Amino acid sequence: MNAQTQPPIELVTGLSVLQPRYDLILCDVWGVLHNGIAAHPGAADALTRFRERGGTVILVSNAPRPGGAVIEQLDGFGVPRSAFDDILTSGDLTRRAVAERAGQPVHHLGPARDLPIFDGLDVRLAPVEEADYVVCSGLLDDDEDTPEDYRPLFERMRARDLLMICANPDLVVERGDVLIPCAGALALLYEEMGGETFYAGKPHRPVYEAAVERAGAIRGRPVGPDRILAVGDAIRTDIAGAAGFGMAALLVGRGIHTEDLGLSHGPLDPARALPWLNRQPHRPTAMIELLVW
């Protein structure tokens, strides 16, 4: 089915337009609730209102940290806990993968701030030459480094056939108005070099299966895919993941695709935004500039 035969993408001004169709929202965090520097107050308000009308909200983040650490970050941004019922991160799924390899030495590739991902687990951090596998949570210095800087390390990993568990499948993320590379960019390069990778978050099914299971427990009954709306700002993760799971998706335009959609210098222009969206491998059900009610 090509873009001409698919349903048109709805351009909506508020979540209230879509709310009656869905019982569950699986909502991205970075790029929707905040931009890495400041919160988007309208987004938290919209999710709170959705919950007040009987909906359930599970935050689904590719953050390479446990969900509790992300909640603390949201508290710091002033995001009220009324905006969500629970949270699931790629860090949570990474912890599960590490627990399954209890006692095995692991090499951590990423900044020290991500070390809580190993807290309480039976794990020994080791250099590449002694590790059984690698957990990649990001670049050591995401302000200065590029993925190519890690090619020599990846050659050493390939020589030992080490599995890389990618704790953050995002390629880039917003930090204010700047896009910075994430662990997903490193995993992509490692794959291109012939390395084996496991992605712990979006757009892969395990994170959605776990999130929907949690929502069912909260609601006391299962939620079918036709009653779920995924909300996010990334075609490659949020929108692709929703398509793979059979869910509707709402793309937040003022995120990592701000420039692509022509939103850098003005309001949404459908004549520019829709052709770009229709060229993408995965199309959202609807699009909104920023998540508001």
TrEMBL record:
<dbReference type="Pfam" id="PF13242">
    <property type="entry name" value="Hydrolase_like"/>
</dbReference>
<dbReference type="GO" id="GO:0005737">
    <property type="term" value="C:cytoplasm"/>
</dbReference>
<dbReference type="InterPro" id="IPR006357">
    <property type="entry name" value="HAD-SF_hydro_IIA"/>
</dbReference>
<dbReference type="InterPro" id="IPR006356">
    <property type="entry name" value="HAD-SF_hydro_IIA_hyp3"/>
</dbReference>
<dbReference type="Pfam" id="PF13344">
    <property type="entry name" value="Hydrolase_6"/>
</dbReference>
<keyword id="KW-0378">Hydrolase</keyword>
<protein>
    <submittedName>
        <fullName>TIGR01459 family HAD-type hydrolase</fullName>
    </submittedName>
</protein>
<dbReference type="GO" id="GO:0016791">
    <property type="term" value="F:phosphatase activity"/>
</dbReference>
<dbReference type="InterPro" id="IPR036412">
    <property type="entry name" value="HAD-like_sf"/>
</dbReference>
<dbReference type="InterPro" id="IPR023214">
    <property type="entry name" value="HAD_sf"/>
</dbReference>
